[in-house]
Amino acid sequence: MSGALPAPRPHARARARRLRARELAALALATGLVCWTAGDARASGIDAPWVTSGLSGPTTSDAAAVFWNPAELAGVERPELLLGAGLIVGRATYTRERRGAYQTPDTLQFKLPLDPANVDATRTGPAEEVSTTPIAPTGNAFFAFPTIPNRLTLGVGLYVPYAAALSFPDGPQRWQLQQAFIVSTSLTLAAGLKLTEQLSLGAGLSYVGGIAELSKVQDFASMKEFRDGLATLKQDNDFGPTTPSELRELDVLARPISLKQAISHGASFHVGLAFNPNKDLRFGLTYQHSAAMRYKGKFAIDMNHPFFTQDLAEQGLRYKPLVEGDAELSFTLPKRLTAGVGYRVNDKLSVDGLLSYVLYSDVDAFVVEASSPDLAQPKLGIADRVAVTLPRKWNDTVWVEAGAKYKLSETLLATASVGYQSPASPDSTIDVASPDNHRLIGDVGGVLKVSDRVSLSADVRVQGILPRTVTASEYDLGNGEYTLLLTTVGGHLKVGF
């Protein structure tokens, strides 16, 4: 069999597809699932844009210290309840730019060089822009209870530290992502102990639960298993993870794949230190450990194409139009180290800041495993379970933010902050699932003291990446221009008892 399959006329292309069907179809289904890719969750974009109010932080003694720095719980003087709710509105755009050469999508050439008759001159340069405007509610709840006054305080919190929600229309990005919804929620028990008047220690233990749903169009040509399977059938080919653009994004090898109702259960911990050398100056340090996430759910592959459902009938191999089974998506949430400082300038003004180093390089791979009786192909030695490890090339990131609080009156306090986060995704692996770049942050808010025991706060927080143009994406997968803007409007009710 030839490695090149020119198809200058539609009927010739159809004939070519039939000739390859017997060799390809049995391999495609079994190997297609493994690269539908957990990468939809990649990069610093999974950091939730809002967890607590602008009033809280690593040097603040309130119930939200359960999240920020458990050592600061030791400074909570009376039972305190903090409830928050907010709305996150985003805007993400992507203009793909094809810089490589591609064959016409209804041909199927296995090897390079690409036959000139198969070159698609229309698939080059910028494509139409795709955009999405995700809207999602968010919230949190914290409670702190001093058990030994001025010495030991316990706390509990429920919050969302990681989240990603994107849904794009059908377009040139569909090979990267169509829809993603990933949420990680923490239920944390924490304690803060005051060792001396200046020094406090704290620790927290978290149950980390998650929900994930993902969908995309998988290109079977990019898979090692597909390449190796063809080789066993004596078909020389250039498919696999390093497949050049000339062999990618062919209609016959494009199958919609989704993960639904995937649930994860895990655990993590964090420890903190608070040092207050005098009544005006505060220092805080927190270490957050990683958490292993294993989302277990159901997968589905749309195989409703004659290539897969009919062409193998005479061989005794026929796939269902919809193949379903169990799937598991695994990755690790990163460790992070956060340092904070706060200073009371006078009775009206205080300033604070934080520096956080996030070890996204710890997330070295995503692992996808799937199982179904319909995946088994005994004649080819393919079992009913397939797995793949997808390496990631993420960078560690830095988050720095500085803020101020100003007392406008006895009942009204104004807050404001500005910040910066560095990107996790390098040019080589960025895609529309992680519209990541240098991120600028701004937050303004206010606190209204209703009574000695009750206060209300409100915040508007805006994050936006600098527009990013990528030309060095591996295998021309993610070249183009990316933008992202996230706006959060939220409020908190604080009650002291």
Summarize this structure briefly.
With 497 residues, this protein is mainly β. The chain has a single domain, classed as Porin (Beta Barrel), CATH 2.40.160.60.
Description:
The protein is mainly beta. It has a single domain (10-496), classed as Outer membrane protein transport protein (OMPP1/FadL/TodX) (Porin, Beta Barrel). It contains four helices and 21 strands. It has helices at 10-32, 65-68, 224-232, 306-309, and strands at residues 80-98, 125-126, 130-132, 135-148, 152-167, 179-194, 199-219, 254-275, 281-288, 291-302, 322-333, 336-344, 349-358, 365-371, 385-391, 397-407, 412-421, 439-449, 454-465, 468-470, 480-496. A 14-stranded antiparallel beta barrel has the order 1-4-5-6-7-8-9-12-13-16-17-18-19-21. Helix 1 (10-32) crosses helix 3 (224-232). The longest helix is centred in the N-terminal third of the chain and has 23 residues, at 10-32. It starts with 9 loop residues before the first helix and ends with a strand.
